[in-house]
Amino acid sequence: MKKILSHSLIYILFMALSTEETLAQSEINYVVSFPEAQAHYVDVEMTLKGIKSSYIDVRMPVWAPGSYLVREFAKNVEGFSAKTSSNGTLSSNKANKNTWRISGTKNKDIRINYRIYAFELSVRTSFVDAAHAFLSTSGLFMYPEGQIKSPSTVTVKPYGNWKKISTGLEPVKGKANTFYAPDYDILYDSPFEIGNHDTFEFDAAGVKHEVAMYGGGNYDKPRLAADMTKIIEAETSIFDENPNKRYVFIVHNTLAGGGGLEHLNSTVLGAIRQGYNTEDSYKSFLGLVAHEYFHLWNVKRLRPQALGPFDYSNENYTTNLWIAEGFTAYYDNLMLRRTDIYSPEKYIELLTGDINTVENQPGNRVQPVSEASVDAWIKYYRPNENSRNSTISYYDKGAMIGLIMDLEILGATKGAKRLDDVLKAMYDEYYKKQKRGYTDAEFKAMAEKIAGKSLDEIYNKYINGTEPISFNSYLGYAGLYLVNDNAGKSIPTLGIATAVRDGKLIITSVQRGTAAWADGLNVNDELIALDDYRMTGAADPKGVTDIARIVSGKKVGEKLKATISRDGIIQNINVTLTQNPGARYRIEVDKNTTAEQMEIREKWLSL
Ligand SMILES: [Zn+2]
Question: Is the pTM of this model over 0.85?
Answer without folding.
Answer: yes
